[in-house]
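Researcher: Checking consistency across runs. Here is cysteine desulfurase again:
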Amino acid sequence: MRLKNLIHSSNKKKVNSIYLDYAASTPVAPDVLETMLPYFKERFGNPGSIHSFGQSAQGALDKSREIITDALGAKFSEVIFTSSATEANNLVLRGIIASANIKNPQIIISSIEHESILDTVKALEKEGVEVVYLPVSSEGLVNPDDVIKNIKDNTILVSIIYASNEIGTIQPIKEISNLIRNFRGSKTYPLFHTDAVQALQFLDCRVEELGIDLMTMSSQKIYGPKGAGALFVKGLEPKGSNKLKSIITGGGQEYNLRSGTENVPAIVGFAKALELIEKNKSIEAKRIKQLRNHLWERLKIMKPELELNGPDVDSSSRLENNLNIYFPGHEAQDLVIKLDMAGVSVSTGSACSSRSTKASYVVKALDLGEDRAKSSLRISLGRPSTLSEVDKAYEEILNLL
C-alpha cells in the first residue's frame, strides 16, 4: 500500500524528467522511425502473400535479415525474428528440450540471468528438467571452470547472460565457449546460449568470435521499436533446425521456428537501429562511460558511504552505461519514487520486475547481504544523456540523502 501511495503521488507531481533508465528501454531513433513509416502505410503488405505488396514486404524482411546477420558475422538463414527477447529465450529453453529427446535433461544457467530465463527454467523444473544455478562472485562474475564441472551426459544447454541488465557485469563468454567446445568435441550437446540484449549496443557480438550456438537480441534496447526480438541459431537452414522445435505453430514462418505474420515495420526498424549502432559503437561507448564515471565520482566524493554493485567503473567487465549503487539506510523503492517526483527516472533493476517490492535477486546473488539488495538503485545512461542531465541528477540524488 505504501508503494502504491508513493506511485500515486509521483503521478500527480510531474516535472521535466531526466531519463536515466536506458537499460529498461530506449526511445526510437528518428532515422529508425523514418525507415519504419512506409511499412505502416503504403508498404503494408503481408510478406506471406505472393502479390507485389507481399513481395515488397518480404523484400524488406530479407534486407533486414541481411543487415543483422552481416553485423553478427552470421549466415543469412541463421537469424529468426520474434516478438521480443523474452520469446526468443523461451524458444531456446523450451525448443531445445523438445528437440533433444533426452531423458531428464539438464540445463546450466547463472544465478543472475534475466527473468525470462530464470522463470522459464523454474517452470521446466516442475516438468522434470534438472537445472543447475551457478553462483557468481561478489562482482557478479561466473567462474568458467564451474560451468565445466557441472556438465554431465544429460546436459543439453548452458545459458549465460552476456552482460547483466541490473549490475552491468560482462561475463567471459569467449572463455566459457572455448571450454564448452573443447569439452563437447564432436557431440551435439551441450549447446551454448547467451542473452546479449544489453551487450548488443556496446560489445562485440560477432558470433564466430564469441563461439556461441545461440544468441538472443532485442530491438528496444538499441533505439529500435518494441515488438521485435531476434535469435541467432548456429547452422540454421531454411528447411528448419534439428536443434530447436517451435513453441508457436501455425503458418511456418521464420524457417518453421516462429509461426505468425512477421512484424515488418518493427523488424525494419530493428535492422536500421543496429546499423546505426554499429557505425558509432566505440565512440558512443567512450562518451557514455565518461558521463557515467563523472556521476559516480561526484557521488562518491560527497557520499563516501555509497558502494558500487558489480565490477569497478574502470573495469573491462562492466558495461559502459551502467551504475548500480548501494545506498545504506535508504529503501530503493522510496528513492525511485522520490527521484521521479524530482524529475529523475531511475530504477531498482529489471523493468520486468520493477513493480515488485522484493529485493533484487541479482544483488542478493552477490552474497553481500539482504539489506544491500533492498537499498540499491540502477542508473543507466544512453545516447540522449548529457553532462547537464548527469549533473542535475547528481544534485537531486544528493538532496535525498
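Researcher: Does this match what you'd expect to see?
Model: One thing to look at in this run: The CA atoms of residues 332 and 375 lie 5 Å apart.
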